[in-house]
Structures are given as C-alpha cells and as structure tokens.
Write a structure and sequence with these properties.
Elements (H helix, E strand, L loop, with lengths): L3 E3 L6 H10 L3 E3 L4 H17 L23 H12 L3 E4 L2 H15 L8 H12 L2 E3 L2 E3 L8 H11 L4 E4 L2 E4 H7 L11 H6 L3 H31 L9 H5 L4 H14 L17 H4 L1 H23 L7 E3 L4 E3 L7 H29 L1 H4 L16 H17 L21 H30 L9 H11 L12 H12 L2 H10 L5
Parallel strand pairs: 1-2
Antiparallel strand pairs: 3-5, 4-6, 6-7, 8-9
C-alpha cells in the first residue's frame, strides 16, 4: 500500500496511480501548510487594501474589468463554480477523478494560490472517504486549464452536483453527509484556485502512462512469441547493431527481445531459408524503442506538471506580488499526450502487421489462418479484421488535438490547448492497442501449436502456459469473444509481463 504525502513537490504519476489502485491514504504535508497559510494571508491583505486583483474582486475572463464589492466576493466564487459546471458526455472513471483530486490538491499545496488549508483538506478527504464527484468528460478546451471538469469536482465541495459514495450515486450534499464530511463555503479566490489548473488532462495522462508502461513491455513479449511462431531471425537484435544507433528505447527493446528469446531453438537453432525478415519482425527494436523513448519524454513532462503551479493569478507571498500570467495553459501537456497517443498507436500498427504474417499462409509457413482444418473452419481469419479495425481507428485518433484552437470568452482567451481532448484520445488509443496486443498474443500462441514447443524459450513458454490455462488451442471454430477478453485481461493486468519476468528478470522501457 502506497501512502501519499502531498507537499507540492516530488510527487510522481506512478505514485498517484499506485495509491489509487492499492487504496493507500492521502495526507497533507503539515510542514508545507505554512506556505499555504502565507498565500491566504496575502489574499486577506489585498481585500483589505481594496486594490483590483483578477479573480479576487473582479469578474472572470472577458469580465475581468468588472469590479466586485467586498461583500460579494464569496458569492463570486460560488457563482464561478456553478456557472462553470457545464460538462457533457460520459463521466470520467473513478480513477481519473481521484487522480484529478490528488493532483489539484498537490498543486495547491505549493502555496501560491491563496486557498485555505481546510479546503485542501476537504479535497483530500474526498479520496480517503471514497467520495467521487461525477464529472462529465467533455467540455474542457485546456486553457484556462480544465475549467469545466474541475468545476464539477469543486461543486461537490460546496454541496452541489452529484457524487458517488462507495459506488452509489447521490446528490453531493448527501454523499458528503454519508461520508461524515461537511461542505465548505468558498471565500475570495478559492473557487478560481480550485478550477484554474491542468489536472483533468494530467490525471488522464498519468493513468495512460502507468498502463502504457506495462503495455510497452508486454508488446516486446508478444513480439517474441511471434518471432518463435514464425521462426524469425534473431540476429537483427544483436546488441552490436543497436549500440551503433544508441537510442535508449531501441537499445532497451533489443535487450528485452534477447532476454526473452534466450534458449529458443525455434529462432537460434534453426537453419533459416530467408536472409532477413520483414520489417515488422526485423525492426521491432527500432519501432518499439521509438515508442519507449516517446513514453519517457511524456513521463518527464507529466511529472513536471504534477509538481507545478498552474493557477492564475499567482500569489507571491514573500514579495506581496500578484501576477496574472498563463501557467494554466495546457499546451505542454497537450503536445505530450498527442505524442503519447501516436507512440502507442505505432505499437498497435506494427503488431497488427505481425498478426497478418501469422495468419497468412503465404508469409507464415503455417496452416491458413492458424486452423488445422481451414475451409470448413475460418480459424483466426476474422480476428485480424478486428485488429485492422482498431489500427484504423487509432490512425484517426492520432490526429493531434493540440494543433487545434477555438477562441473563447469573447476572444479574450484566443488560443487554447485542447489538452483534455488529447488526453481522452490517448486513453482510447491505449485501450485499442491493449486489444491488438491481446490478439497478437492469441495468434502467436496458436502459431506455436504447429511448432515443436520443446524448443520454445523458457520465458515465452511461461507466457504460452499462462494463456493455455484459460484458452485452449483452436481445434475448430468456436465463439471467440470471451477468449479475446481473457487475453486482454492477461495483458492489462500485467500477468503476461509477470510470467515472463519471473523467468528473465525485469524488462525495461
């Protein structure tokens, strides 16, 4: 169990996801609260001085020139939350919402947003007490931050909107009551502090990264199984080759493949009729490796964003300064998540080409569509169609969201990032590729039915045995959809990865 202590610094996306999935508690770093208090004291001083400060005693967006009287500043914050809670579409998953809450609380803990400690504490208690706001997934343009989804999150704090308590949906006030929590009345600046941030897109991103880490390693495993089923030529993975190019991901992918294929007489003990393999086999390290490098870049961007101030205005309590700027703009995250989607899409793209080689008798040297009695049986003919459909969908989804921008707020906010769109696309691409890799897993294991399995490498044999516990060899046509789900679950849960790593040790990205 992972316990998170939020200080605004040194938090990683992997830690956030682990805490959510393992049910670890979330705490606030008491030592850091002094910075939160100082920024709040600055807000109080600014109100007493009566100077116009954006979001404290002014309207928002194009209405920034409208002054708000002192007795109305609390109403201003409540109205902000209510008016911005206008999302549509399917709700975010509980994991996305919980990650969003944790990430927003962590950013507020840096002490530049002017919010009271008790509001941050209530945010954290939502996670600890299993209160999950219902947040529609569509409506954010990614600047000023993820206003709409974060407004839905914040509405629950004031007893508005809806929330799940222990998986049962209630009006927010009732959900809080059942959890033993009380709604808060927001004061000056606090509504803006809660919703002006990039935590919706970043929350989706850290989940995509966490599961993408498993997927990238698992793709190396299924590729190794395919190499054996097709009696591929392993010299393309020779470390000397990859040291001459030295992209870290490529080197890592080649090393993974060599480890996984140790002891395989299907690839190392065979006289190959071919001089070299097709690209989808020979270039696995180059293609998988490029996606691994992209993954590491995105991980760095998101871990920076997690520990950043993405509010506006920013309060520098040490100097007494308040600066309106643009840290809420999601462009760094939007570009990174578009890149992640493209990188994951390519894993599916090349995996589908390997699936085609497995089922095509002209390329595989195996029975047509991996069926012992093809003609009467179609075998795995149509499973490749499914993979092709997913690959085609991913090509559409890989169009970057970050190159689009539609001005908002009467052209005051005239360039936006569409980062939350990029994030949602990345998660959909990830899901599609998980299915494609699962299909390769089934096809490669079926291909091995026509090889001498005594010659299979120990690591890939462990994976083959794992699959065969629940999916028997395909002797005749049968209803395949449940087996696709089983294979997907083995991929997503990390069981395929664990089975291989139990033999060869840790694989790397």
């Amino acid at each position: 169990m992972v316990m998170l202590k939020l200080s605004g610094s040194n938090l990683s996306g992997h830690e956030v996801v682990q805490a959510i999935r393992e049910g670890g508690p979330v705490e606030i770093d008491a030592a850091q609260l002094k910075e939160v208090v100082r920024s709040r004291e600055l807000v109080v001083r600014l109100l007493q001085e009566g100077l116009p400060v954006y979001g404290i005693n002014t309207g928002f967006g194009k209405l920034a020139e409208t002054s708000i009287s002192g007795e109305k500043v609390a109403d201003l914050q409540r109205n902000l939350i209510l008016s911005h809670s206008c999302g549509v579409g399917e709700p975010f998953s509980a994991e996305v919402v919980q990650a969003m809450i944790i990430l927003r609380a962590n950013a507020l803990m840096k002490g530049y947003s002017g919010i009271r400690p008790e509001v941050i504490e209530l945010l954290v208690q939502l996670v600890n007490e299993d209160v999950t706001p219902l947040i529609p997934s569509q409506g954010s343009v990614g600047a000023s931050g993820d206003l709409v989804p974060l407004a839905h999150m914040s509405a629950v704090l004031i007893g508005e909107g809806r929330a799940y308590y222990r998986d049962q949906l209630y009006p927010a006030a009732e959900a809080l009551q059942r959890a033993g929590l009380r709604p808060v009345t927001l004061e000056a600046k606090e509504g803006l502090a809660l919703i002006n941030g990039t935590q919706a897109m970043t929350a989706q991103g850290v989940l995509a990264l966490y599961d993408g880490d498993v997927l990238l390693k698992t793709a190396d495993i299924t590729a190794s199984l395919t190499m054996e089923a097709l009696a591929g030529i392993p010299s393309a993975f020779d470390g000397r080759v990859h040291s001459l190019r030295s992209h870290p991901g490529q080197v890592a992918a080649a090393a993974n493949l060599r480890k996984l294929l140790v002891g395989s007489d299907l690839v190392y003990g065979t006289e190959h009729e071919r001089i070299q393999d097709a690209y989808s086999l020979r270039c696995i390290p180059q293609v998988h490796g490029a996606s691994k490098d992209a993954y590491r870049y995105v991980e760095g961007v998101l871990n920076t964003e997690i520990n950043s101030v993405t509010d506006n205005p920013i309060l520098f309590s040490q100097d007494g300064d308040v600066i309106s700027a643009g840290n809420f703009h999601g462009q760094p995250v939007a570009l990174a998540l578009d890149f992640l989607g493209i990188a994951l899409s390519e894993i599916g793209n090349i995996a589908e080409r390997r699936i085609e080689r497995l089922v095509n008798p002209q390329l595989s040297g195996l029975p047509p569509f991996l069926s012992e009695a093809s003609g009467l049986n179609s075998g795995y003919m149509i499973i490749q169609y499914t993979a092709a459909a997913l690959v085609s969908e991913n090509k559409v989804l890989s169009h970057p969201a970050s190159v689009d921008s539609i001005p908002t707020s009467a052209n005051q906010e005239d360039h936006v990032s569409m980062g939350s769109v990029a994030a949602r696309k990345a998660l959909r691409i990830l899901s599609n590729v998980q299915n494609i890799v699962a299909i390769e897993l089934l096809c490669a294991c079926q291909g091995l039915e026509f090889r001498d399995r005594s010659k299979v490498a120990p690591a890939t044999r462990a994976v083959y045995d794992l699959v065969r516990k629940d999916v028997p060899p395909l002797k005749a046509d049968r209803f395949l959809e449940p087996e696709l789900k089983i294979a997907r679950d083995l991929v997503v849960s990390g069981q395929v990865l664990k089975a291989a790593e139990n033999i060869v040790g840790s694989l790397v990205n």
